[in-house]
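User: I need a structural model of Methyltransferase type 11 domain-containing protein from Candidatus Woesebacteria bacterium GWB1_43_5 for a docking pre-check later this week. Nothing fancy, just the predicted structure tokens so I can convert them on my end. Input:
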Amino acid sequence: MKRSDFTRGSAEAWDEVWKGAERLYSDAPITQNQVFEHLKIATLSRIFLDGRLAGRREAFKMLEVGCGTAFVSLYFAKKGADVVCLDTNENILKVAEANFKKENVRGRFVVGNAEKLPFTDNSFDLVASFGLLEHFKDPSIAINEMVRVTKNGGVFFADIVPKRFSCQTLGNFFNLIASFLFWTTKGLPSKGWQKGIRNIRPLYFENSLSWREYQKIIEAAGVKNVKFSGNRPFPRLTLPTKLDRIYASIIKVFMPFWRWFDSKGGVFAVYWGAGWWFWGKK
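Assistant: Understood. Predicted structure tokens for Methyltransferase type 11 domain-containing protein:
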């Protein structure tokens, strides 16, 4: 992989990263990934459908940049949105398209670069990304592109998971140890270490920009009254299917705390939360 590609989205890493990852959509979440995705949906619904911010409640055009399996876009498509899903990875776009077909909803799937979006200015009511912008050494190019294609009065939303200490740091060490122990029981300790260490040294690039630096970049791109909060007090854990579902059930018990954390957690949420949310109106 060229160094320039590595620090500008790490495009070539994602086939390997997606191997074995949760890919299925569900309206009734039973896995930890599905629970995490539905919390994103709930937050984005609240923000976008807030008339004070979005200014409209009718059907809208949505673009998800770096969509992956497009879980969030699929939810909004089922609600009647005109959805476009963009990713650099053709293989994961095929997975996203298959999920849409399974749910009998339509969407448009585009292979494209976040730094050069193939859309005209002011095309979408909502432009969102989840776990994308931290993979760019200089995310300003992608952010400017996202804002460019957002309609005047439309909403920009970014879920960012930069390289820093958070609850996920502890989760990553747990995942390393769990992977090593699992494969050691199968007589393959070196494989367990190789897989586990990716939690500490991932295949993809992550920047270490502060939330203030992100906020300045987003404001400079033309987003007004940028709002910001920390999110997700629980780490993603690598678990066998049964344990994964048990973990998801435990998280659901603490859902009231999670909602409080994301909306009113303040400084605690900023530093303990796995990610940061930024949103505002163009």
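Before docking, keep this in mind: The CA atoms of residues 78 and 103 lie 8 Å apart.
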